[in-house]
Specification:
Helix content of chain B: over 70%
Helix content of chain A: 55-70%
Subunit structure (chain A): NDH-1 is composed of 14 different subunits. Subunits NuoA, H, J, K, L, M, N constitute the membrane sector of the complex.
CATH superfamily of the largest domain in chain B: NADH-ubiquinone/plastoquinone oxidoreductase chain 6, subunit NuoJ
Number of helices of chain B: 8
Shape of chain A: globular
Number of helices of chain A: 12
Membrane topology (chain A): Multi-pass membrane protein
Keywords (chain A): Cell membrane, Membrane, NAD, Oxidoreductase, Quinone, Translocase, Transmembrane, Transmembrane helix, Ubiquinone
Largest interface: A-B, 27 and 26 residues
GO biological process, one term (chain A): aerobic respiration
Strand content of chain B: under 5%
Catalytic activity (chain A): a quinone + NADH + 5 H(+)(in) = a quinol + NAD(+) + 4 H(+)(out)
Distance between the termini of chain A: 45 Å
Structural class of chain A: mainly alpha
Oligomer: heterodimer
Chain lengths: 347, 203
């Protein structure tokens, strides 16, 4: 695309226009996807509880999210009188922006990536570590008890699980030999027995895939780990004082992050845009469909867990992060690097 | 063109937010300005092609250190009047620091523009086309291995020291013992007795 525009506009302007179009091509469908995924989440949750879920607005209730969006858009933004005005308004914007930023390096198909950078995985780690600021600032700027408790919980939770996520990523990077996300996907081609694609089918990396799935739920605050908005303890957590669009931005950012984590699960362990098996007819299906299919599968798994598993207690959450996942993933780095030294590089 | 615009944008924001870090009345705002300044410094690193350093800067400083910093500052019981009184008191010291730092920078830049010190061939040039991380990794794990390991050892000692200093064993707590809970079976916990009416029962 850059080459196409560079033909007409010269390199600089062409690059600029192409990048802007690329950003819109990712961000706008992502917004639509978030709206539909909220609907899907509610439907899955309802089905598991033997309810109908949203079924009034539009056919099968498909337009429910848009109706909610319109309603929220038309309401008044209320700022508490003792809140810190500027930070109170910036916090949801940070959450939302950060949720969109990370998608810049996600490869949707062979060559379909906005920024094919060498340090793609580190970029994602860096951006996802920024996500906590939106929540901390919201909690502090609200100047209210429960949001502040929630902010402190969120900060501790995210920092704890980022540690084990980091170690899991190291094992993947060791095996793939690159930080580039497209490179990581390519390294999974015909990974097992020469025809199965995906690191998760590797017995040495499968435990890390499980750790990553659970950690990614904790990182985004999905239900077994949603202590930041535990309604029986903290009203609505950091969102308590928010209304109208500022609330909607939190909502969008949260689901954007969930989708991002599903995409990361697909890319790091399940072969991204590669079909599950390295067999020529399967490549006739464009890679983007495999990728979206995997994202939706992981989203279903997360909704399934949300519908079935009760919320963790806070000390249990911390125990899982620091006493179980951290030692396991740290040990696995030694295991994986030792195995690679023996087999790939020679001692 | 775009690079120049980006450079001036990042550089201005670094300086402006660093200045606002000092000037801001509210310590929480100060920390936030500091974070913005870290972030823009990372942007500058990307511009010069040191993308690995840039990402590390964001992950370590913005993602971890500044969060803890923000945490501490938010918990503080701040007396704004006292803070403002301190401002004038520390001003001479601050001015002195600024003078020393700017003198050093002027010396460094003028020495550099005069030709600099001729480096011996000790620093191996990075071959073209090798990614940042690989170039850095090869240097750290071959040439500077012992220094790197030494730094790691110092960090390890610091970590153990911090744990030893803050760890305390409290008596009277009843922490959850998960393996004990999992091992527990109904026959250990439940007792079926045939209780005669009108008599006491041992528990």
């Amino acid at each position: 695309m850059t080459a196409f525009f560079a033909n007409y506009l010269g390199y600089d302007a062409g690059w600029f226009v192409a990048t802007i179009i690329g950003i819109l091509l990712i961000a706008l469908p992502l917004m639509l996807a978030v709206a539909m995924i909220i609907y899907a989440d509610r439907k899955i949750w309802a089905a598991m509880a033997l309810r109908r879920g949203p079924n009034v607005v539009g056919p099968f209730g498909l337009l429910q999210s848009f109706a909610d969006g319109l309603k929220v858009f038309l309401k008044e933004t209320i700022i508490p009188s003792s809140a810190n005005r500027g930070l109170f308004l910036i916090a949801p914007i940070i959450t939302f922006t950060v949720a969109l930023l990370a998608w810049a390096v996600i490869p949707f198909g062979p060559g379909m990536v906005l920024a094919n950078v060498n340090v793609g995985l580190l970029y994602i780690l860096a951006i996802s570590s920024l996500g906590v600021y939106g929540i901390i600032l919201a909690g502090w700027a609200s100047n209210s008890k429960y949001p502040f408790y929630s902010a402190i919980r969120a900060a501790a939770q995210m920092v704890s699980y980022e540690v084990s996520i980091g170690f899991v990523l190291v094992t993947v990077v060791l095996w793939a030999g690159t930080f580039n996300l497209s490179g990581i996907i390519e390294a999974q081609r015909a990974h097992i027995f020469g025809f199965i694609n995906g690191f998760a089918f590797n017995p040495l990396l499968f435990p890390m895939a499980v750790v990553f799935l659970i950690s990614s739920m904790a990182e985004t605050g999905r239900t077994p780990f949603d202590l930041t908005e535990a309604e029986s303890e903290l009203v609505a957590g950091y969102q308590t004082e928010y209304s109208s669009m500022s609330f909607a931005l939190f909502w969008l950012g949260e689901y954007g992050n969930v989708l991002l984590m599903c995409a990361l699960n697909a890319i790091l362990f399940w072969g991204g845009w590669l079909p599950p098996v390295d067999w020529a007819p399967l490549y006739l299906v464009p890679g983007i469909f495999w990728f979206f299919g995997k994202i939706l599968f992981f989203f279903f798994v997360m909704s399934w867990i949300k519908a079935t598993v009760p919320r963790y207690r806070y000390d249990q959450l911390m125990r899982l992060g620091w006493k179980i996942f951290l030692p396991i993933s740290l040990f696995w780095i030694f295991l994986v690097s030792g195995y690679l030294m023996l087999t790939r590089y020679g001692v | 063109m775009i690079q120049t615009i980006a450079f001036y944008l990042f550089a201005t924001l670094v300086i402006a937010s660093a200045a606002l870090t000092i000037v801001a009345r509210n310590p929480v705002h100060s920390v936030l300005w500091l974070i913005l300044s870290f972030f823009n410094a990372a942007g500058l690193m990307v511009l010069v092609g040191a993308e690995f350093i840039a990402m590390l800067l964001v992950i370590v400083y913005v993602g971890a250190v500044a969060v803890l910093f923000l945490f501490v500052v938010m918990m503080l019981d701040i007396d704004f009047a006292e803070l403002r009184a301190g401002y004038a008191q520390y001003l001479p010291f601050g001015v002195l620091l600024v003078l020393v730092l700017s003198a050093e920078m002027i010396f460094a830049v003028s020495a550099w523009s005069a030709g600099g010190i001729a480096l011996s061939a000790s620093v191996a040039p990075v071959p073209e086309g090798v990614p940042n991380i690989e170039a850095l990794g090869t240097l750290i794990y071959t040439r500077y291995l012992f220094i790197f390991e030494g730094a790691g050892l110092v960090l390890l000692v610091a970590m153990i020291g911090a744990i030893v200093l803050t760890h305390r064993t409290r008596s009277g707590t009843r922490p959850q013992n998960v393996s004990q809970q999992v091992k527990r079976r109904p026959q250990d916990a439940v007792r079926k007795i045939d209780q005669p009416v009108g008599q006491g029962m041992d528990l």
